[in-house]
Each structure stands twice: as structure tokens, then as C-alpha cells.
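Project standup — Tuesday

K.O.: blocked on the structure for the chain from last sprint. Re-posting the sequence here as requested.
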Amino acid sequence: MYPIYVYARPRALLFALALFLLPHTLFAATLSLVPQSGVYTAGSTFSVGVYVESAKQAMNGASGTLSFPSDKLQVVSLSKDGSIFSLWVQEPSFSNSAGTVNFEGILLNPGFIGSRGKILNVTFRVKAIGTAPITFSSGSALANDGSGTNILTGFNNAQYTFGGVAVKPQPVSTTIKNEPSSVAVSSPAETNIPAETNVTAPENTSEVVEAIQPSPIFSPEFIEMIKIFAKNVILIVLLLLIIVIILYTLIRVWHAVLLLRIKLRNEAEIDKKMEVQMTETRKKLMDTEHV
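H.V.: unblocked you, prediction finished:
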């Protein structure tokens, strides 16, 4: 028995390990950047799409943080057009000083299942030549299983190459953060142009950021849903009130008709009795006259 026990123990361990890894294998989800590579010139803009893939398991939420080198890139804008998410726990935001983009969205039942679910689109402007990786520093993908299981198993990051002469980026957003910003200028070895020192922007110039203010507790979409729900409740209450008034009126009319019928029937019975009495009185008078 002892050799059998020693031989069977590794099998049991392998079986337990397979059971542990099986859900992650079957229900894996990944966050990806599209395109994952490209060559662009300094001063130009390009767009990067953030996508989620969950081909086997429906998911109803995803979040993540993108990191990019702030000396090479700056975010121009974020777009939610075509996103699979209808509600946002945290509105997509970015910080060019920190070199980050953050998002956290959810969608209602039945969730999303597929190989290419768009989350948002990020437009960058190239500040300097060189190479720049854009990576997921954190992320999650929550399964639509009632427990919010995180089924995220990996990231598909991106790396881009920038050539040409670096130019000073221009402010491109309506949201302004009033603090000095520094623009790195390439060395003569990289650009073959006369060397320049770092240029510090004066105060009250823009470093483009979006959603500097903290996200509201409830998103505008959620507030709009509450307004629509309240309007529907008011309409239903008014409809019920109208129905009650109509029923009350019908009951009163029916009651009045019933009382009228009873009154007419009683009057008919009284008339009939009086007629019978008069008939009997006439007969008695006639009998008296004959006698």
C-alpha cells in the first residue's frame, strides 16, 4: 500500500492544481491596446483603443490604469464613443504630469461576451522623439456571475517609435491646471540640431488634464435613469388615481340607479295596494246599495 500512496499523491496534487487553474483558463479575459505598435513623427497625434476580450464568460465591469512616459507623450482627449459600457463608476480621466489614464466602467445584464469590446479611445500627441511604451499598470475584468469574480489574466501592451524634430506641444483641452510644466528638448545627438535647454512654461499656462475634480458619487447616466424612473412612477400614480375616481363615480351612479329602482318599485307596490283597496271599497258600496 505504501508505494501506491506515494505514487498517487502527485496525481492528487496535479488534479487539485488543474481544478484550481481550470476556471482561469476557461474564463480568461484580457485588456489590450490597439494598435500595439506604430511609427509617428514628433508633434503629430495618434489614437490608441482600449479593448477587453472575454470570449468564454460574460463580464459586466472592467477597470484599469494606463501608464505612459510623460516626457514623450501627452494625452489630448478621451472618447467613450462606441464603448460597451453604459455606466461609469469612475469617469475616464488622465494626468499628463503623472503619465496615467484611469477608467472604470460597468454594463447591465446580460453583460459582454466577445473578442473585441471597446472601452475607450485615447488620443496622444508626440512631444519628443524616441520610443515610448504604453502599459497597463493595473486592471480588472469582473465576471457577470453574481459574485464579481475577477477573470482578468493578462494585458496586451503597446510600444511606439517617434521620429522627426520634437516640437513644443500646444494646450488642447478646456480643463486647465494652473501650475508650471516642463518640456524636455532632445539632445543634439538625437536630432542633429543645435542644443537647447529645458523650457519651463510660465505660470497659468496649461498642462492638459481631464477630470481633475473628483468623480461624482453618481454618474450623469445613473441620475438620468433615476429621473426617468421618477417620471414613470408619477405617471402610474396619476393613472391609478384616475382609475379610482372613475370607479368611485361608477359606484355612485350605480347606487343612485339602484335607489331609484327601489323607490319606483315601492311606489308601484303602494299604488297597487291602493287600487286593490279602492276596488274592495267599491264592491262593498255596491253590495250595500243592493241590500
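K.O.: great, moving the ticket to review. The longest helix spans residues 220-290. The radius of gyration is 40 Å.
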